[in-house]
Write a structure and sequence with these properties.
159 residues, alpha+beta, 2 domains, 4 helices
Length: 159
């Protein structure tokens, strides 16, 4: 059984690039399914230690948990010495945190009590339906009430 597995999945050298699959439990809804990594070390049991641009991954991987990459997109000396989990590496590479910010304010969203404003974000459709919100993007003046004059102005401005 082991010899058949070794024939199907040959050993990978140190400094080889690969795509490590992120398990569904460790992945957020918007996080990528894979992380690009380089082999930093192989232990005596055949488990691989991975390094990404953010740091070394804490867990070791077996040979069936990744696929080798055709291109060398990173070197082993590019990997910082800090360690992090596969989930946090996935979130950092995508730039997306799990979940969304929503404020549910009743008034204007003008102070730091608003969750969106305190995180320097704009309110969106998931927050609230308050039309008096001061933290939403301003709607263009010409598209509020289309009339003959507005259509004429839009045509002059080529909008």
């Amino acid at each position: 059984m082991v010899s058949l597995s070794n024939l199907r999945l040959p050993a990978v050298d140190i400094r080889a690039n690969a795509v490590v699959r992120v398990p569904d439990l460790d992945r957020g809804r918007l996080a990528p399914r894979n992380v690009l990594a380089v082999v930093v070390d192989v232990n005596s049991s055949g488990f691989y230690l991975w390094g990404t641009k953010e740091g070394l991954l804490e867990q070791l991987s077996a040979r069936n948990e990744f696929k080798t990459a055709d291109n060398n997109f990173m070197e082993a000396h590019d990997v910082p010495s800090s360690s992090l989990s596969l989930r946090s590496s996935s979130m950092i590479t995508s730039g997306i945190k799990q979940g969304f910010v929503s404020c549910h304010c009743k008034r204007y969203c003008i102070d730091k009590k608003c969750k969106c404003r305190s995180k320097n974000m704009r309110c969106n459709s998931k927050c609230h339906s308050n039309s008096f919100c001061k933290n939403k993007r301003a709607s263009p003046l010409f598209f509020i009430r289309p009339t003959l004059h507005v259509l004429f102005i839009n045509k002059l401005l080529n909008l």
